[in-house]
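User: For a reading group we're discussing how well predicted structures match intuition. Take 6-phospho-3-hexuloisomerase. Before you show the prediction, I'll give you the sequence so everyone sees exactly what went in.
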Amino acid sequence: MRTNEYAAVILEELQQAAHRLDAVQADLLVERILASRKVFLAGAGRSGLMAKAFAMRLMHMGMDAYVVGETITPNITASDMLIIASGSGETRSLISMGEKAKSLQATVAAVTIFPESTIGQLADLTVKLPGSPKDKSNSQYSTIQPMGSLFEQTLLLFFDAVILRLMEKKGYDSTTLFDRHANLE
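Assistant: Thanks. Here is the predicted 3D structure of 6-phospho-3-hexuloisomerase, as structure tokens, for the group to look at:
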């Protein structure tokens, strides 16, 4: 298969994944984000990169958004929210973060393939995303892509869709977000 043919198959897989997103869970996440004073994002590996991209867009919207582990990340409190992005829902470091956030009475949300996972069970709100875990023997989705690529790509699309919903609810447009875009580049 040629590169453009692979790209077409990947787009097909993402189209199917988009149709499987749960609008009720997504809208609940949007409402919880709007009700939070600060929003913290955590993820490992490529899922963590998608979480960082989401944190950046939340910042562009004027929200106090932070990536766990960065040097400028403040403390989490009961009026805040931690969103954990984890395909498996079993990443030990993310479980520890979720437990700590819960002990401080912050809201915890999980975006995962497996709502029944440790992180999914720990969370106050779980959003199930379609995708294939790194270990494909435990997958209900067929993909030509390696490891967790389908989940990670769906995660980015989902987070961008959440941003669009937040923009709609706040009456923002791209100009509003661009006003907060980095200008020391």
